[in-house]
Design a protein that fits this description.
about 80 residues, about 70% helix
Length: about 80
């Protein structure tokens, strides 16, 4: 069963990305000055597409290779 993404799904994806970035930075031990420099640098050279594109392309290739997505494991919307 393939259920189209709902608003709640996008909210979940946004929160998961935010948490992953936070955890990755925390794992590096980045201090406040380093975080400020990273924000400044990324604002100049990166876009969301630059940062998310590789992961999205990898996922699309995996789905194509496997013949479809894995079964949905979370249900955030109450519309069904």
């Amino acid at each position: 069963m393939n259920i189209p993404m709902q608003y709640e799904d996008y909210s979940h994806l946004e929160a998961a990305i935010r948490e992953a970035v936070f955890n990755a930075l925390e794992d590096t031990g980045l201090d406040a000055d380093g975080a400020a420099k990273l924000i400044e640098t990324m604002g100049k050279v990166s876009t969301a597409a630059d940062l998310l594109g590789p992961g999205l392309r990898d996922y699309k290739a995996k789905v194509a290779f496997n013949g479809g997505p894995k079964p949905r494991s979370i249900y955030l919307s109450s519309t069904f």
